[in-house]
Structure formats: structure tokens, C-alpha cells
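Next up, sample data:
>
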Amino acid sequence: MKSTTRTCASVLILILCVYCKIHPARSWVIDDHGCRLPDNGSGFCTSLDKCETVIYLIDDHDYDSFEAQDILKKYACGVDELKRIKVCCPYTPLNVNSSTMKKKETDHSHHKKVKLLPKDCGLVRPWGLFNGNEANLFEFGWSVLLRYEKRGDPFMCSGSLISSRYILTAASCNFIKYKVIGVRIGEQNVRTLKDCTWEYSAGQKIEYCGPPPQDLLIDSNDFILYPEHNLRTLEHDIALIRLREAADVNGISVFTVCLPISAAEKSNHIDKYTAIGWGVTEHGLSSYDLLKVLKVTEKTDNSDCSETFKEIGRLTEGRMCLRDTQNGEVCVEDIGGPLMGYFTKNQTPITVQYGLVSLRTAKCGNGASIPTVYTNVAPYVGWILDNLEP
């Protein structure tokens, strides 16, 4: 989310307030929850600065131009108690064929802080490629467990390592009833002291073991929460954790995942995504043993999630609704965990994190394909970069 976008929104709100005084009697809202779009579709009425679609529609024009005002008049749906304009925002982002808009929305490759993210991210192991339901050793070195002050199984959220100093996770992970006290990086099987694998070579069984996992201390003050996150609806459910000491990105058991920085990475067409987590065994029992892989998670209509999770209302642009076609599901312990896809960069496949788990049902491994709500990472890349420090 760009600061220029917010400034643009503030200016436009002032412009449209004048319009509201001139045209106070327009019939906007079609029911208690919907409004009419210019194409006669339905949307939700919200403040202008919360609707990226409309902001970007006018972003190619001068803010006080006739063109910008005309676009906003078409989307206007009312005013709030302070007489500030509200716009009819599409439930699903509009497919706008504007290369200029696309560049402004997605390309952060020249952001002044992009150098704080490692270039050698998203390592794809030759034996990995999301093969099987159990993650191979060293396959997902960016996977992170959040530790809480709780007896028994203390790991209640997940995250992903995006640099040696930052973890990406869900904002809701900072509001669990237990106190967050640390993170674990470079883990595969939480029931073993060391993670090992083996193979046969020349008729002999050879064992390979990784370095011990890294346990680092954190508390709630180390969270950087997206400022507009909403605990009730879980909108903008995204946060950074700044580590007090740098993780050892050893390239063996610990490495970082890539973010969709460039326009090409965000517009990369992915039929099926992959999620990882420790939350469920093959028998549907809650477990924190081996890191698991859900490798055929595909997008479904946003209304699918809105009907399943009625408490969150309509899904906006910052969220995605996906359904696991293997009926494995992402479990509640994996909130904050990454949703990934492949991207080919310089003829080399890399793993890019496109989402993170925000909301799912408590019914794990029951054989039903129940949709899961993910925070869409791409719209927040600007905010992530803005908040990075050396």
C-alpha cells in the first residue's frame, strides 16, 4: 500500500465532498450491504481510501481533473457521518486493461528498501518440487513456528522468513490468548532433537542431518501490525516480526522465501498454489510432527468464503479464497503460514509467497474440502518494504 495512494485518496475525498454538496439526493445504496457499480454489478460501499480498485482507476489522471471526478462520481455511493465520500467497491477486483495502472500497482523492484531483501530467495531443492504430503528435509527453509507461553504444544501460529531479520505472519497471531515468547526457524520434525534423512549409495545407507533449529526470543512488541487490521473481520490480517537478533540463514536448513516484488511476479498466472504446515496427520489427528505439504490449493469464488465465514463479511482485494482439492486442509495451527507458487526468474524456478493463512474452520482432516481465507500478499508489498530496516 503506497503512501502516494493514501495522499491521492485524501485529496480526492476533499474533491468529492464538494460533489456531495451539489448532488445530495442521489439514490446510491440498493440494500443494507450492497451498492450499484457503473456496470450494474453489485459492490460494497466503503471509504475511498479503502478501495484500491477505484483509487487506481483514477491514478492515471490529475486528481482535480474532470476525468478523475467523473470516474469518482460514477462510483460514489454515499457519505459518512463526517460528509466524506464513500465509493462502491467491487467485491472482486476489476480487470482493468491498463499497463500504467498495473505497473503502479505491482512493481516495487525499484523501491528504495528492496535491497534489504535477499536476492537468493525462494530456493527450490531438486528433490523437492512439492512432492508428496510430507515436506522433504531442507525443502522449505523459510518455514517458521511461533512459540507461545503454553504448556504441552506451544506452537500455535506459523510464519515465513523473508530476510534474516524479518518474519511475515498474520496480525491475528499477536492476539492469541497466550503470550507469544519466541520463534523457531529451521524445523522439520518438532518431536526429534535433530532432523535427518537418508539415502542408499553403493549399497550403504547414508544419513544426512541438518543443523539444530534456531530458537529466538520475541514478544508482542516485536510485531509490526498493518495499521488497519481488523480483529473482528480479520481484514488486513498481516504483520511483520522484527527479530532482535538475525537468524542464521545458512542455506542448508534455513533460507528465505521470495515476495512478489516485480509486476511479472505478481501477474504470474498460477493454477494451483501450495501451503505448508504442521497441523494435521494423514489420520486427521492434531499434530505438530512433520512439516506437511498441501500442494493443490486452488482459487475459488470469494463468495464461497463469505458464505462459510459469515462473520467476516465480503472479501475485499486484500484477501483470497482458496479450496484444498486434496481434502487435507490447512489447520488452525497454521495461521500465518505461507501460500506459495513457482516463478521462473532468469531461467531458474524460485518459490514466491503469494498469500498467508488468515482464517479456516476448526474441522481438520475430515475429508471435506472447506475453503480457507488467505491474506493476499501482493497488495501489501509496498507496506512491507516501507517497514524494513537494516
Remarks:
- The chain has two domains: 3-106, 114-386.
- The CA atoms of residues 154 and 307 lie 32 Å apart.
